[in-house]
Write a structure and sequence with these properties.
Elements: H1 8-34, E1 43-49, E2 55-62, E3 65-70, E4 86-91, E5 96-99, E6 115-120, E7 126-132, E8 144-151, E9 156-160, E10 170-176, E11 181-186, E12 196-203, E13 207-208, E14 212-213, E15 224-228, E16 234-240, E17 244-250, E18 258-259, E19 269-277, E20 280-286, E21 294-300
Antiparallel strand pairs: 1-21, 2-3, 3-4, 4-5, 6-7, 7-8, 8-9, 10-11, 11-12, 12-13, 12-14, 15-16, 16-17, 17-18, 19-20, 20-21
Length: about 300
């Protein structure tokens, strides 16, 4: 048998091709491993909230219910000229929408406040929300602040979180009861650009640890709408060239964000994914360019 000797050029090309193949293979393997298994199931999509308003800020309240924000539905906003962002309750068993009852939640029901997003502890005794401040900041716009509401049997107590700086905006809170960690987005200094995702751990009733950036989720663009599921998978959204906002996932323990597959991401803006349970997922989407955001429901076949 003749000995076959490869030329230096052919050996070099072979190494390049093998390396490229290995990179592609590893990337596909990583994709398969990092996307939670239940998100690879066959879900049925249904647009459940479509109005002339922007509907967003989805968060799980309890089994069968979620709360969302809207800036044009008839509620307290009908009493003022400019539609405000307010909270609404969605009943998954009946597909009915009703104003979220804010009575007893301190002064939050006051019509001067826009509620940007809300999050609940698992026992519903603690509420975290973003609302507009009363005064403009040094740049001339009204920022949002984070408020903690502690609910007792017949009373509630509200307080602005101690780390909030009135010059910057703090929005889209998500509270993880298991780890007592509050995630949120802010345009405070020190981030990678735009709005970044931060977190802080609860220390006692009113104390919070030093705010830290969630570096492996942040980018030079806006990183928005943090949330987690029961298996510690972390979700957020950021803009992608040519596609708008896309939903990313940090699978349990991972530090490499993976973009979710369809049907959760489309050519439109996709954001604010909330896992009600492994058979029920809700997210917000802007289906048309320059259109309003609607809310979509995904259920297993």
């Amino acid at each position: 048998m003749k000995n076959v000797v490869s030329s230096p050029r052919s050996s070099f090309l072979t190494r390049i091709l093998l390396t490229a193949f290995a990179v592609v293979a590893n990337s596909w393997a990583s994709f398969g491993q990092d996307v939670p298994i239940f998100l690879r199931s066959n879900y049925v999509e249904r647009r459940i909230i479509k109005t002339k308003s922007d509907d967003f800020g989805v968060t799980r309240l309890a089994k069968g219910y979620f709360v969302f924000c809207s800036n044009g539905r008839k509620s307290i906003s009908k009493l003022i000229k400019r539609p405000k962002i307010d909270l609404f309750l969605y009943d998954l068993s009946t597909d009915k929408v009703s104003p979220f009852d804010k009575s007893g939640l301190c002064e939050i029901e006051n019509s001067k406040y826009n509620i940007g997003s809300i999050s609940f502890s698992s026992d519903l005794k603690n509420v975290f929300l973003s609302r507009n401040r009363d005064l403009k900041n040094y740049e001339g716009y009204i920022p949002f602040e984070l408020v903690q509401v502690d609910i007792a049997d017949e009373t509630s107590e509200c307080s602005v979180l101690s780390f909030v700086n009135s010059d910057y905006s703090y929005q889209q809170p998500f509270y993880d009861t298991k780890t007592e960690t509050l995630f949120f987005v802010s345009n405070m200094p020190g981030g990678r650009g735009g709005y970044d995702i931060y977190f802080t751990k609860r220390l006692g009733k009113y104390g919070w640890s030093a705010v830290q950036s969630l570096d492996y989720a942040n980018s030079p663009n806006d990183d928005l709408f943090p949330s987690m599921d029961a298996d510690n998978n972390f979700y957020f959204s950021r803009p992608v060239d040519g596609r708008g906002l896309e939903i990313f996932c940090l699978s349990n323990g991972s530090r490499i964000p993976i973009v979710l597959p369809g049907p959760f991401n489309t050519v439109g803006d996709d954001f604010n994914l909330s896992v009600i349970d492994k058979r029920t997922i809700v997210l917000a989407r802007v289906p048309k360019k320059n259109g309003n955001s609607d809310i979509f429901l995904y259920t297993l076949k």
